[in-house]
Amino acid sequence: MLQEIEHDTVSGRLAEIAEIAADLFSVTVGEVEAARSFVDDVEADSLLVIELLSHLEKRYGITIPEGELFRLVDLRSTYDVVAEHAGW
Amino acid sequence: MGNDRCAIVTGGSRGIGRAIAVQLAVDGYDVGFCFRSDDVAAKETAELIEAQGRRVHHEAVDVADLDAVRRFVGTVEDRLGPPHAVVACAGITRDRPLAMMDGAEWDAVLRTNLDGVFTVCRSAVFGMIRRRAGAVVTVSSVTGISGRAGQTNYAASKAGMHGFTRSLAKEVGRYGVRANVVAPGFIESDMVAGLRDTARADAERSIALGGFGRPQDVADAVSFLVSDRAAYITGAVLRVDGGITS
């Protein structure tokens, strides 16, 4: 039971982050989920990646150090960065 | 009575940099400034800032060294708070006709004047983006616009600032961070103190207002550009030159 709840929370948060990214990059959630690299696959330029970090900080009330920018490559790694700094 | 803001000035110990640092203190900023090596002048500048009732942090920093500048900016943030205004004023000349200029004279000027703009802006920009507030001013020179014989290196570094600052303005405007250039003409300072009388007279003849400016004239322009009264100004080059380039 506990595992199910945890899974729901994780997938819920992944979906939320995917939506934030999709909105910012002007693509579909599906394209965000499928992208192995935001910059290469959905043509998100580096400036948009900075905006993504900024949006995530605001949404989750966290601080993501600038050194983490390079890790915001795809949905999964972006989730990992947020999770680390949000203490999930 | 301050404005709870902090300002960073590179090259703040003397001349135009000092006038800027002190003016920002008058405007209510706590000021962190760096300088190359003139401890005595730096101490005087620090005292002038404290006389305005503001806090100050100053240290000798090689502005071309990114790590050193990052540490300096970090120290200012810890001691005075996050910088709202960042003014890049560190600058040197090594005048020489190109036909006689050696590599060291080229490098020294580009490193201090242009790399020094990169390092301080790079160190402060992410924080300003995160806070969605900030104003950068880079202090160039009308030489960067019109060129001047004997100053291929200096003019290149100053013209480089214009491209840099305009690009930065376009990157960070969406976060409410502005970036502008102030381009002084002939200003009374150590940099022009060595001008021969004939050169000075020639220069004055081309200046609509008839004489050299003062460091305070440049400081007033910087003070305006970092203030909220310049909220719709970004990517601009403001000449403070008595009309020499008009």
Question: What's this model, at a glance?
Answer:
The complex is a heterodimer of chains A (88) and B (246). Chain A is mostly helical and 88 residues long.
Poorly predicted runs of chain A: none
The level-1 CATH class of chain B: Alpha Beta
Q: Would you tell me the overall average pLDDT of chain B?
A: 96
**Beta-strand share of residues of chain A:** under 5%
**Helix share, percent of chain A:** 55-70%
Largest interface: A-B, 7 and 6 residues
Q: Could you say how many structural domains of chain B there are in total?
A: 1
What is the name of the CATH topology of chain A? Non-ribosomal Peptide Synthetase Peptidyl Carrier Protein, Chain A
Number of strands of chain A: 0
Give helix % range of chain B: 40-55%
The biggest sheet of chain A, with number of strands, parallel, antiparallel or mixed sense and barrel status, is: none
What is the number of helical segments of chain A per DSSP (H or I, 4+ residues)? Answer: 5
Describe it for me?
The complex is a heterodimer of chains A (88) and B (246). Chain A has 88 residues and is an all-alpha fold. Chain A has five helices and no strands. Chain A starts with a helix and ends with a helix. Chain B is α/β, with parallel strands linked by helices and 246 residues long. Chain B has one domain (5-239): NAD(P)-binding Rossmann-like Domain (Rossmann fold, 3-Layer(aba) Sandwich), CATH 3.40.50.720. Chain B is 48% helix and 17% strand. Chain B is built from nine helices and seven strands, in the order βαβαβαβαβααβαααβ. Chain B has helices at residues 15-26, 39-50, 66-80, 103-131, 143-146, 152-172, 190-193, 197-205, 215-226; strands spanning 5-10, 29-35, 56-60, 83-88, 134-139, 177-184, 237-240. In chain B, strand 4 (83-88), helix 4 and strand 5 (134-139) form a beta-alpha-beta unit. The longest helix of chain B has 29 residues, at 103-131. The model of chain B has no long low-confidence stretch (mean pLDDT 96). The A-B interface holds A 47, 50-51, 54, 57, 63, 66 and B 126, 129-130, 171, 174-175.
